[in-house]
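Recall from the previous lesson that a structure prediction takes nothing but the amino acid sequence as input. Here we apply that procedure to Coniferyl-alcohol dehydrogenase from Nocardia carnea. The sequence below is the only information supplied.
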Amino acid sequence: MSSEQRRIVVIGAGSGIGAATAAHYHEQGDFVLAVDLRRSDTPAARHEQCDLRDAAAIDGLLERIGSGWDALAYIAGVPGTAPVHDVLAVNYFGMRLMTEGMLPRLREGGAIVTVASVAALGWQQRTDELADLLDATDLETVRNWQDAQDPAYPVYSTSKQAAIIYAKRLAPAAWQKYGVRINTVSPGPTETPILTDFETSMGKEVLDTVKATLGRHATVDDIVPVIDFLASPAARWINGQDVHVDGGFVASISAGAPIQL
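The prediction returns the following tokens.
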């Protein structure tokens, strides 16, 4: 148990990485608010339900939970097999509303960690393309933006690219005004209940290639410690960063020919 109890909000705590993160904090003695669309039995001090596709529901949640929190872990996410508007609403816009709503509710020295994805690779080349999406301030505008996009481009990648860019753009101001850090974590393929959805949307052969290269997919136990670290005082000077937690797969395809040992 930690020497001092912290107060942590975990969004998407019903299963997968979110459930493991909530359980981790609960087991070390922190006060955990576990939030999910549906009821769950995830170990936590308090549970709330929230539809992240609904701005009014998010506002209601924020009003109910009050202030005095130490960290927000936004881990909710839906795969590319879901309706395109839901993907953008949950993975990007809901995260944005929760982040902006939580900033004044976090203590100085607090942190926000959002789970993105290595599927966001190439976000640096799409900043201009995503500018109007990042400027959107309501869900209807987000939906209209998506309706005008090439349907062949994976909306899941778009949602995670937008999440990373948004976090990086907000991080300096969040630190200056609130003393709160914002970072993202980008896992590679991870053994969770929605892995089969990713096999469908991204192609099983693609994920099998990743697994063959690294020897296995990640587990939640590979990801949770990184979330924990970034949300902790030990990471007090890390802000606006996207941390790949992928066993080195991106490095193996982006840095040139590997050095043989």
